[in-house]
Amino acid sequence: MTDPWQAVALSRDVAKKPLRVLLDGAPIVLFRSPSGLAALADRCPHRLVALSEGAVRDGTLECPYHGWRFDAQGQCVAMPGHLGDLPRCRIPRYAVTEAEGVIFLSKGTPTDLPYTHCMAGQPTVLRLVKSRTRSTMIDAAENILDATHTHFTHKGLLRGLSAKRYRVQVQVTGGPGWVEASYTGEDRQKGLVSALLDGARVRTVGRYRHPGIAELEYWGPKGLVLATTFHLRQADPETVEGVGFLIAPHQGLLGQVKALAFKPMFRIALAQDRRILRSAFDNAGAATRMIGPLDFLRRDIEAIASGHLPDAAQTPRSYEIEL
Ligand code: FES
Ligand SMILES: [Fe+2]
After folding, report:
1. Which of 19, 229, 239, 306 could link 235 by a cystine bridge, Cβ 3.0 to 4.6 Å?
2. Could you read off the pLDDT of 22-67 as tens digits, one per residue?
3. Can you give the pTM of this predicted structure?
4. 50 pocket-lining for ligand 1 (C-beta < 6 Å)
5. What is the pLDDT of residues 206-216, one digit of tens each?
């Protein structure tokens, strides 16, 4: 649970130019040096200019103001015009790594590799998406895992146009740093996405993992059919950013087609969710939210986010609802 990795950007976003990202309000600059990807505090120690406004020269990061240069360790290696020894000057650096096309940062010193997605290590077809909205990490994670909003927010896309609901069983289980809701008995959903991709569905799982990972799994009779793993982080107090993996098992052409078809529809769903999340954020004021009887995961997500064991770890719960 300590020093978690957080997804901050796609590998392809950092090429020749430096890239600024925010992690809990802290500005961090990513750039490629001869020793690999580097992550430094995005603030020149001289006049506090954003180094990400500068350029990468000879594998070092050059400040746009007076041209001081910093290496991948954050060490100042040049002060143009100055003759003689350089004064000691170093800026904070962050642990950074890449996995499956995504850049992960940590404010600590993690000893393990980052968790990428729920089918890591298996042959898959992957697509990456990025998203950003005015919201909080918890609201955005809950939104991804919330099965009951699809009838309204995503009418016609993830759900059919009819209001028909089906009786389903929901099992909520958890452990240290995670909680999940597993839906069974659900009939095939009638939306466009389901029609294209799903086929028979046996089980749908929505899972939250520390520190901001929301994943959905669609299971058919022969195994996992489609999944999304979304890495969310609070960029600043008003903004949540997400890097998402859309995953299909590699079944030759079918996997490719699924992943291709899924991405544009996923983008539409994201836009629909962004609108709702923004509205909730801007409209909230100082009011408190009610936790409804179908909000199975909210309290447990909040518990995990504040470093506690979710209730579901001790007491699994089951419900019957109409979805
Ligand atoms: S502000 Fe960066 S070199 Fe002067
Ligand atoms: Fe949604």
Report:
1. 239
2. 999 999 999 999 999 999 999 999 999 999 999 999 999 999 999 9
3. 0.93
4. no
5. 999 999 999 99
Nearest to 51 by CA among 36, 80, 30: 30
The residue nearest atom 3 of ligand 1, judged by CA position, is 66
Return the axis-axis angle of helices 137-145 and 253-283, rounded to nearest 10°.
130
Q: Is the CB of 266 under 6 A from ligand 1?
A: no
Alpha helices in the chain (DSSP H): 137-145, 150-153, 192-197, 253-283, 298-305, 311-314
Judge whether 80 and 67 are in contact, CB under 8 Å: yes
d(CA 189, CA 291): 26
Whose tokens are 């500068």? That residue is 54
SS3 218: strand
- Gap between the terminal Cα atoms of the chain: 33
What the chain holds in terms of domains, given with CATH numbers, is: 6-106 (2.102.10.10), 124-322 (3.90.380.10)
Task: Answer yes or no: are the C-beta atoms of 37 and 96 closer than 8 Å.
Answer: yes
